[in-house]
Amino acid sequence: MAEQVPAPAGPPPDLSEDDYRALWDQFAEVHSAAQKEYDSSIRTLASAGLGVTASIGTALHLFSGRAIAAVIAYLVSVACNVASHVTAQWDMNCRHAALLKTQRYESALSSKWTRRTTFLNLAAGVAFIIGGVFLALFVAAAT
Predict the structure, then answer these.
(1) pTM for this model (two decimals)
(2) Number of neighbouring beta carbons within 10 Å of residue 44
(3) CB 78 within 8 A of CB 101
(4) What is the pLDDT of residues 50-90, one digit of tens each?
(5) Strand locations in the chain, DSSP E?
(6) Which end of the chain is least crowded, N or C, by CB within 10 Å?
């Protein structure tokens, strides 16, 4: 069985280098806008979930294990969201430094912080969903 050789890095043969970079820049811009929206949404919704959980618990004079789990999940979500903001800044600093050092466009496409930022974004979303599940279970059990 013949071994497949991966395609060389760089622009596809049907795109010029300038077209490739312009397209990449458009993707990066859209990704950045989506990331800002995601971060803002998670931060707002997790904070709201925390407030709703605290309000319901106060109104019912009851904080069960489910309510505490919801609070912890929402706090983890906000913490991961803030941490991802920090790692995103470090990611951009590393990419900028690599670009200045090598003067090559390709060196700025990612850094060691890119995957960490992505992981933290995913963790923030998962923690938010878990918080919502525990909040729903808390309300269902309390009513």
Answers:
(1) 0.76
(2) 12
(3) no
(4) 999 999 999 989 899 999 999 999 999 999 999 998 998 89
(5) none
(6) N
